[in-house]
Design goal:
The protein folds into 2 domains: 3-130 and 263-294, MutS, DNA mismatch repair protein, Chain A, domain 3 (Orthogonal Bundle); 154-247, MutS, DNA mismatch repair protein, Chain A, domain 3 (Orthogonal Bundle). It contains 12 helices and 6 strands. Helices cover 63% and strands 9% of the residues. It starts with a helix and ends with a helix. The radius of gyration is 30 Å and the shape is elongated. By secondary structure, the chain is of the alpha+beta class. The strands form 2 sheets. Strands 3-4-6-5 form a 4-stranded antiparallel sheet. A two-stranded antiparallel sheet has the order 1-2. It has helices spanning 3-8, 11-19, 25-32, 40-60, 72-79, 86-107, 118-125, 131-140, 153-177, 180-183, 229-262, 264-294, and strands at residues 141-143, 146-147, 192-194, 197-203, 212-217, 223-228.
Length: 296
């Protein structure tokens, strides 16, 4: 079909409307691949898809499609033994939730032995549910930047020790800055952090009166940020705990990534099906909108 004919039919406008109905980038990519067909069998099949989605939307409402992500890079990385980021694992979990939700959505439509939605039901039938992976990820990861204490008993224990050690360091430093002897040496009676270490601001001329390690200097040079010798060991212990926390988080991410790797084929296949379903329901939503507009 030539460009002039497509323009006359406002083909691109229809494609733009359809793009707006797809929930995911995967679905939108599928929409962008559409080309006019001439084979009647193919055309009728696509029309049946749309009719099924249209009817389901009327009878069952919008399917739970939100949360479909393009997770091919994550699945591939897990397959070759790489550890996924918290954000990457959450994307996998979201996609697994969508697959499970669609299973329930279609299950509730099966009132008779004879299917009214054979194309969509066959696609959904091909989706696999990995509830254990979904649960493990959601139990361990709160957000893209935060791992839950529930991820492991070891992580919970380390974080409790970190809290306790932080309090010990602050208590020691507070006793130093509140001492009448030391106050005259300080620029301010505050505790701050430099290079990951707790320090206090000391007037440069009083450096010799507060034994410790210098970690930073103010822009004017009037203030030195010193880690008093009295808290060096406590700060070292705190740093060691923070390194242990990081190592445990890395171990947890590797473990969760291994779960994804073990089921990478099924998870990858789910993505292909979810893309197809998002595309089909986008057509159904557009058909529903057009039907409503035609009634006015």
């Amino acid at each position: 079909m030539n460009v002039k004919t497509l323009k006359t039919l406002e083909y691109n406008k229809i494609i733009d409307l359809l793009l707006g109905k797809a929930e995911s980038s995967l679905g939108k990519d599928k929409v962008k691949e559409i080309k006019p067909l001439t084979n009647m069998e193919d055309i009728e099949h696509l029309q049946r898809e749309t009719e099924e989605a249209y009817t389901l939307l009327i009878k069952r409402g919008t399917p739970p499609l939100y949360g479909i992500h393009s997770i091919a890079p994550e699945v591939k990385r897990a397959e070759i033994g790489g550890a996924l980021s918290p954000g990457g694992l959450l994307k996998v979990s979201d996609s697994l939730r969508v697959s499970r939700g669609l299973k329930n959505y279609i299950k509730e439509t099966k009132e008779d032995k004879v299917s009214d939605y054979p194309i969509i039901e066959e696609l959904v039938e091909g989706l696999r549910v990995f509830k254990h992976i979904e649960d493990e990820i959601n139990n361990a990861i709160i957000s893209e930047n935060e791992i839950s204490d529930n991820a492991s008993s070891t992580l919970r224990s380390i974080r409790r020790q970190i809290i306790s050690k932080n309090e010990a360091v602050k208590d020691k430093l507070n006793s130093i800055i509140n001492s009448q002897t030391n106050k005259k040496y300080l620029q301010d009676s505050i505790v701050t952090i430099r290079e990951g270490r707790y320090v206090i601001p000391v007037k440069s001329e009083n450096k010799g009166n507060v034994p410790g390690l210098v970690h930073d200097m103010s822009g004017s040079g009037a203030t030195l940020f010193i880690e008093p010798m009295a808290v060096v060991q406590l700060n070292n212990e705190l740093r060691e705990l923070e390194l242990k926390e990081r190592e445990e988080i890395e171990r947890i991410l590797r473990e969760l990534s291994n779960l994804v790797a073990e089921e990478s084929e099924g998870i990858g296949n789910n993505q292909k099906i979810l893309q197809e379903l998002d595309f089909i329901f986008a057509k159904g939503k557009l058909a529903l909108d057009m039907k409503r507009l035609s009634q006015y």
